[in-house]
Fold this sequence. Notes:
Chain A is mostly beta strands.
Amino acid sequence: QVQLQQSGPGLVKPSQTLSLTCAISGDSVSSNSATWSWIRQSPSRGLEWLGRTYYRSKWYNDYAVSVKSRITINADTSKNQFSLQLNSVTPEDTAVYYCARAVLLGSWYTFDFWGQGTLVTVSS
Amino acid sequence: QSALTQPPSASGSPGQSVTISCTGTSSDVGAYNFVSWYQQHPGKAPKLMIYEVSKRPSGVPDRFSGSKSGNTASLTVSGLQAEDEADYYCSSYAGSNNYVAFGGGTKLTVL
């Protein structure tokens, strides 16, 4: 059974960097059949996909247009985890952040396992 | 504002059926058969209920079914049970730039 365990601070000051980590058990971050995403949820924006990392002979990253200039997602194979960094945060970035695995179900990658969620509040 | 439009609420009595709609555009829901539905109980992570419009992952009761017509996808829950009360979100592949779009969620109440 795949488990995703999130960690990171719940409070970040405006203009600083939001950093979260997602530790994977039951699968490998280097898997050739999975992708690893960050998704956030807020009352104002609903569910919003932020970006993903995945390995297919080399590492790839895709980011949502809305955060592309501020986001970095990295994989750490030694710890079997991946991380999110979101720079220059504002109160609009306050949300519950989820990490999630997507695998090929049929012809498309679908999110089948999610982390427990981390409420991140941006406030001074 | 979410990319896909869902009604904010839906309700039904135990044993009844309820259908939740998810309206997108010809660039997402209408263009691809890559619509998924997620169930989310309060304080919990979303759970995959339907993928590729109408397919159920192992372990999801066959009371849950999905369909699509044009730019609108639908989730039907038949034989409503108390544990079906939750928020339901749709998602769709939205092309290489946006990758995936989500709906705003529908709160299903079992009366």
